[in-house]
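in:
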C-alpha cells in the first residue's frame, strides 16, 4: 500500500458527490467502503485468498469469560499478498484482535460481579478500601482518566453510579414498555439526585495511585454513605467507571497493540461513533465524508487525511437497536437520553443532536473535548477549542436539517438545509491544510 508523505488534514466543502473511500453517516453511523476497487470480506470468510478489505467483527466470537467484550468495537483491515500471505495475515490479525480486545476489556470493564483473571477496574470495585497491585497499563489509563476528572469540567471517573442508574433506567423502559424517566417519575428523579450528590461530594470516592519499586498500586476509598446508597437503590457497585470515554480507551489501547505488532493497514471503529485510522489505512488517502442523513443522504464535507487521524462522534440517540440510548415524547417534544451525561447535572445535554470532530489528537483526548463541547451546548466554544487541522460538524436539535461546519480559522457556518426534497447549498468554503 502506498503511504503519502504529506500527512496534513484538509477540509473541502462541496455540493458535488465525490467518490468515497470511507463513508461516515453522522446520523446513522454506518461504515462502508466505496471506490476502493476491492471487495470487503467478513473475518469469518472461509478460503479468503485475494487481497482486499476484511471486516473483523468480534461479535462472531463470544466468550463467556469476557461477556460484552465484543459488543461495540470492530476492525477493517487491508490484507494483501499471495494466497499464503493473505491466509496467514488474516489469521494473524483476527487472533491478535480477539486476544488484545479481551485483555484490554478485562482491564477496563467496571462490572463488579465479573471475576476476570486480570486485576482491572472490576476487581478494584469489588475490593474497595484495599491497596491492590495492578498492571502498569491500567495504572496509566487510570492516571489519565483521573487527570481528566480533576479538571472538574463535565467528566468524572467517579460517576459510575450515574452510569449504572441510566443503564438500569433504559433497560427497564424497554423491558417494561413503561416510561420511568426522571422527567415523569418522581421517585426516579429523587434517586438520581441522591446518586449525583453522592458522586460529587468530596472524598466520598477517592482513587489513590502509587508506584513503588517498579510496581503499581491502586486504592479506591469509598465512604459508607455511598455503599449504603448502592444497597438501598439496588445499584451495580460501579464506583469507578470510565463511562463516556470507555470505548475511546478501549480502541486506543487495542490500536496501540497493533502498532506494536507493526500492523497498520486499517482502522478501528466503535458502534458509539469513535474511529481510529492507522497510518496505512488506505490505498491512496483517507477521504472521510461527513453526512447528514435525515430523510436522504447528502454530502456535507470531505475531510482528507493522508496519515493517521481520529474521529469522535457524540449523538443523543441510538442506532442499530443500541440500548445505551432512549427516546420518548413529552409535551409534543422528543426527549433523547444517552450515557453522555454531565456528572454535575446527571443528564445529557440535547442542544446538539450530533457532534463529530476529526483530529490528529489521541482518541481519548478528542472524545473528552467533544464530550465537553456537546455538554456545554455552545457553538462558540468549538472555535476556542479547535486547533489547526481539526474539523467539526454539528447538528442542532431544534434545527434537525441544518449542518454547522467549522475549522479553527472560521466561524461556524450554516452550510445548508434540506428544502423541498433538495439539499440547497447556502455557503461553501475551502480550507487548505498548512
Amino acid at each position: 500500500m502506498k503511504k503519502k508523505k504529506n500527512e496534513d488534514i484538509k477540509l473541502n466543502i462541496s455540493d458535488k458527490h465525490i467518490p468515497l473511500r470511507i463513508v461516515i453517516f453522522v446520523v446513522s453511523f454506518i461504515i462502508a467502503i466505496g471506490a476502493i476497487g476491492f471487495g470487503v470480506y467478513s473475518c469469518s470468510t472461509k478460503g479468503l485468498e485475494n487481497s482486499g478489505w476484511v471486516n473483523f467483527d468480534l461479535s462472531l466470537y463470544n466468550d463467556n469469560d469476557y461477556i460484552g467484550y465484543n459488543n461495540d468495537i470492530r476492525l477493517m483491515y487491508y490484507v494483501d499478498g499471495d494466497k499464503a500471505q493473505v491466509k496467514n495475515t488474516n489469521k494473524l490479525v483476527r487472533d491478535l484482535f480477539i486476544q488484545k480486545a479481551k485483555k484490554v476489556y478485562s482491564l477496563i470493564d467496571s462490572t463488579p460481579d465479573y471475576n476476570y483473571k486480570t486485576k482491572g477496574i472490576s476487581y478494584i470495585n469489588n475490593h474497595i478500601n484495599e491497596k491492590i497491585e495492578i498492571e502498569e497499563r491500567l495504572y496509566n489509563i487510570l492516571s489519565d482518566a483521573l487527570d481528566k476528572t480533576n479538571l472538574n469540567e463535565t467528566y468524572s471517573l467517579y460517576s459510575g453510579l450515574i452510569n449504572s442508574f441510566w443503564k438500569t433506567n433504559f433497560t427497564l423502559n424497554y423491558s417494561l414498555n413503561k416510561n420511568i424517566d426522571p422527567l415523569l417519575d418522581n421517585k426516579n428523579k429523587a434517586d438520581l439526585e441522591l446518586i449525583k450528590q453522592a458522586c460529587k461530594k468530596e472524598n466520598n470516592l477517592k482513587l489513590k495511585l502509587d508506584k513503588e519499586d517498579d510496581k503499581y498500586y491502586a486504592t479506591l476509598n469509598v465512604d459508607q454513605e455511598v455503599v449504603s446508597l448502592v444497597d438501598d437503590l439496588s445499584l451495580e457497585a460501579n464506583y469507578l467507571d470510565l463511562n463516556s470515554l470507555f470505548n475511546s480507551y478501549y480502541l486506543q489501547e487495542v490500536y496501540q497493540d497493533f502498532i506494536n505488532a507493526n500492523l497498520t493497514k486499517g482502522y478501528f471503529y466503535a458502534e458509539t461513533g469513535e474511529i481510529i485510522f492507522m497510518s496505512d489505512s488506505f490505498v491512496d488517502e483517507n477521504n472521510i465524508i461527513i453526512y447528514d442523513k435525515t430523510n436522504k443522504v447528502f454530502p456535507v464535507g470531505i475531510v482528507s487525511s493522508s496519515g493517521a487521524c481520529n474521529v469522535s462522534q457524540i449523538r443523543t440517540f441510538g442506532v442499530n437497536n443500541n440500548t445505551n440510548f432512549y427516546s420518548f415524547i413529552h409535551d409534543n417534544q422528543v426527549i433523547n437520553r444517552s450515557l453522555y451525561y454531565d456528572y454535575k447535572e446527571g443528564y445529557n445535554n440535547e442542544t446538539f443532536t450530533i457532534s463529530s470532530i476529526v483530529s490528529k489528537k489521541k482518541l481519548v483526548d478528542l472524545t473528552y473535548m467533544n464530550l465537553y463541547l456537546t455538554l456545554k451546548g455552545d457553538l462558540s466554544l468549538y472555535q476556542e477549542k479547535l486547533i489547526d487541522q481539526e474539523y467539526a460538524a454539528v447538528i442542532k436539535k431544534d434545527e434537525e436539517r441544518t449542518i454547522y461546519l467549522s475549522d479553527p480559522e472560521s466561524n461556524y457556518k450554516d452550510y445548508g438545509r434540506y428544502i423541498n426534497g433538495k439539499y440547497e447549498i447556502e455557503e461553501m468554503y475551502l480550507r487548505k491544510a498548512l
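note: The two ends are 25 Å apart (CA to CA).
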